[in-house]
Amino acid sequence: MRQRLVIIIALIVVVGVLVLLNAVSYVKIEQTAESEMSPDRSTLNAGATGTRALYDFLHESGYQVARWRESTASLLSFNGPKPATIVVIGQTLIPFSDTESKELLHWVEMGGRLVIVDRSPDRRLLPPSGEWTIGAHLTSFPWADIDPNNFEQMTNGIKPVPPSQPTLQARDVAEILPSRFAAAITVAPTMKSDKSGNAKDKPAGGETEESSGDADSRETPSPQTGGYGPPPPQAQAARVSLAPVVNFSRENGALLVEYPHGNGRIVLLSDPFIVANNGISRADNLQLAVNVVTGNGGLVAFDEFHQGRSATHNALIQYFEGTPVLAICGQFALIGLMVIWSRGNRFARPLPLPQVDRRSSLEFVASMAELQQRARAHDLALENIYGRVRRVLVRHAGLNHNSPRAEIAARIAARSGLNQQKIETLMRNCEDAINGAPTNAKESLRMVRRLRQIESALGLRTRERDAKQATEKADL
Fold first, then answer.
1. Mean pLDDT of the region 198-211
2. What's the distance, CA 333 to chain centroid?
3. Of 3, 63, 242, 332, which residue has the fewest beta carbons closer than 10 angstroms?
4. In sequence order, which residues have a C-beta less than 8 Å from that of residue 322 and are 6 or more positions away?
């Protein structure tokens, strides 16, 4: 026991020293101030460059919004509900790979809606729309000394911008106020080469320089009919203009552009300031953000996977990340392994196993009882029982062992209310049988039963040994 106490005290001291070392060596990492040069556009960020205000507003307003923490491959799987709109805001911490870009655009082709809010969007996420290419370039770079909480620094020299045309994106929007770092979106026709090898621009409508008569006389194969001829009315009704729609624009370029891609649509907003916490309350920026993000309804998923908050991170570990709690838990685990290893190793010479005597004390009693029964030694059995009972009765009566049985019986009767004559007669019969008077098994058993009754009536504890012996016999 003393050795274990020493080990326990040593463990407590070691743990205390480790906790003290962790507390002394822990240095709180100061969070760097947010800036437009390295913003955090996550919906979990309540800072100036975050988008938590927009997410909370949509959620409280009853829109179906969610934080998408899965990879783009999950958009193409058939398990679980799929969002109607994916929103990618700002330059993500984890860039899109080529595979992820193809998966995301394939999801858009199948009818999804992709909203990109960025000053320098990934070119892989902006495929051409028919004969048109879409791009964006910065006109003013946000340096690190710009304070995103300073409204004057963010919008110095910028005037509110009204809608370019009445579209669904511009409904209920009178004017918006972008920042001075908003990019300019360019929409340009794709360059084609003619037969002579000279590059030329195709007309905006995508028509060639052929005469209309030649175009009408030439028959095109119809996939619905399997032959040649004009397409059926259903196919003509299903045709959608591939030209991008400019919703808001300034002198140097557009701010909001929308165009189809397959069965889906891509929306590009060139300034995250409009949807960020530091700019969403300016002018009608909030209304524009709601129009752009929600679209035609359905589940709106904000991409948090590429913001470094994927679902693979353990929430508990992420909560204690940056604190000494994880280091302390690791040290506790190391101490536990050392204790387990030390308990499994011998520290001294091997000791023999303790020899446990599995024999019961009732074996001797049972053997003697069997011998007495076979030898018909009823007087000997009665002598063993009567001698012990008489000693107990003498102590109960307050007399000595040499007192006559008449006095013992009188004292017992006076204290317990039992019949003195019966007690004295029982004691005399027992003593006569012990001294050689003829008796049999039935008579001996009757006298023993009577002795037990007297013990029980007096509340004596002479049978505790018998109960213990019976328990030991049952265990055998």
1. 41
2. 21
3. 3
4. 29
pLDDT tens digits, one per residue of 252-305: 889 999 999 999 999 999 999 999 999 999 999 999 999 999 988 899 999 998
Mean pLDDT in the chain? 79
Euclidean distance between CA atoms 292 and 287, whole angstroms: 9
* Nearest residue to 44 (alpha-carbon basis) of 66, 24, 11: 66
- Other CB atoms within 10 Å distance of the CB of residue 261: 19
Quote the CA–CA distance of 308 and 267 in Å, as a whole number.
23
Which residue stretches of 26-97 are H helix? Answer: 52-60
Amino acid at 273: F
Residue 165 scores a pLDDT above 70: yes
Given a contact cutoff of 8 angstroms between Cβ atoms, the answer to whether 195 and 147 are in contact is: no
Number of H helices, E strands in the chain: 15, 11
CATH number of 52-192+235-313: 3.40.50
pLDDT of the residue at 53: 94
Q: Report the distance separating Cα 242 and Cα 253, nearest Å.
A: 19
**pTM score, whole prediction:** 0.56
